[in-house]
Amino acid sequence: MTQRPLMSEDEARLTAKGRATRARIVQAAADLMFERGVAGTSTEDVRESAGVSNSQLYHYFNDKNRLVRAVIVHQTQQVLDAQQPLLGRLDSFGALEAWRDLLIDLQQQRDCRGGCPIGSLAGELADADEEARKLLVTGFARWESAIRDGLASMRDRGELRPDADPDQLALVALTALQGGLLLTETRRDVAPLRAGLNAAIAYIRSHAA
Amino acid sequence: MTQRPLMSEDEARLTAKGRATRARIVQAAADLMFERGVAGTSTEDVRESAGVSNSQLYHYFNDKNRLVRAVIVHQTQQVLDAQQPLLGRLDSFGALEAWRDLLIDLQQQRDCRGGCPIGSLAGELADADEEARKLLVTGFARWESAIRDGLASMRDRGELRPDADPDQLALVALTALQGGLLLTETRRDVAPLRAGLNAAIAYIRSHAA
């Protein structure tokens, strides 16, 4: 579920050196957009930060929308990778609690700044850019299905009741996580993230066999 | 808790006509920023949409930051008012369920667009503008404490157990609501909002006496 996706067509036609340059541009854009938002980041900012020329930038991304889309795909992968190996194996209450602790830790490490890299992009782009919105839906779906896979294992092993719905439970967990991250960013305090995830885990536990 | 706050000092020193002009500017700014984001809204856009001159706009708001802050206060009041009278009396499971249905309805009425007016501002401003962040914290706190007051009544009447913590439960509800609204906006589907609020209500119910 969280394995690295196949290269996009754009990437596949590049040489190794071209892919490295493209990756440097996307990384620079992702960092700037995480810090300042998409609207607050110009392609000129990205060009400067990545240390590439105008024609190089244009060669890889002929408009800002294409760059934004590459950033969404990149940030989705980063977010999922940062939760590994736990996210790939959320198949016990112990694993769910360790995952909660990891998510809280990650926020504390960055002083509760920035919120969720995918959630922030969603808040800014969902209504403004339909192509971006679809990529964000896909990103959230990858995250949700990684959670769901672990819960489905728990049900299959009889730890959750047969009527527990892993899809619904995973959606509840992702909802708590997104709301928790937004309130944690606003309050600069992990209490909302902790409260939301604790409640989500308690809700999952209420479906234990 | 959700009563209209006292006028700000800025408002108090204005004539009735001045207050109406100021309100028209804030409403225009709030609408534009809800639709396009703060970064995507220029003071020129606001000036045009409100039908005021440059010097009038400058008279009330001498920079965009002041206007943004007035928009946060305005949107907080709008969001709380839109949930009345239910939000002022969330003191039974029936009321909590009616509130959930109202929130889902409101999203359906706007085709799941826009997300939460406060949450969207928080996602865009929390890291960028410390003064705005504090106003957003206050806005969320007003919302949270309206939820908490109802839950505290339920505990005082013995419907929730004495060890139920209305502060924590209200924070869980607000977290589920914010995550649900963000995912609902992204997916254009109320399923995440419904799942999050249902789980939050079930979690509150698990504290029933």
Strands, helices and their partners?
Two copies of one chain form a homodimer.
Chain A: H1 9-12, H2 16-36, H3 43-50, H4 54-60, H5 64-82, H6 93-109, H7 117-125, H8 130-156, H9 166-187, H10 191-205
Helix pairs in contact in A: 2-3, 2-5, 5-8, 6-10, 7-8, 8-9, 9-10
Number of strands of chain A: 0
The low-pLDDT segments of chain A are: none
Continuous helix count of chain A? 10
User: How far is the first residue's CA from the last residue's CA of chain A?
Assistant: 26 Å
Rg over CA atoms of chain A: 19 Å
Largest interface: A-B, 46 and 46 residues
Fourth-tier CATH superfamily name of chain A: Tetracycline Repressor, domain 2
Give the structural class of chain A. mainly alpha
Q: Please estimate the helix content of chain A.
A: over 70%
Overall geometry of chain A comes to elongated
CATH architecture name of chain A: Orthogonal Bundle
| Count of discrete domains of chain A | 1
Largest sheet of chain A: none
InterPro entries (chains A, B): Homeodomain-like_sf (IPR009057), HTH_TetR (IPR001647), Tet_transcr_reg_TetR-rel_C_sf (IPR036271), TetR_C (IPR011075)
Protein name (chains A, B): AcrR family transcriptional regulator
Keywords (chains A, B): DNA-binding, Transcription, Transcription regulation
DNA-binding region (chains A, B): 42-61
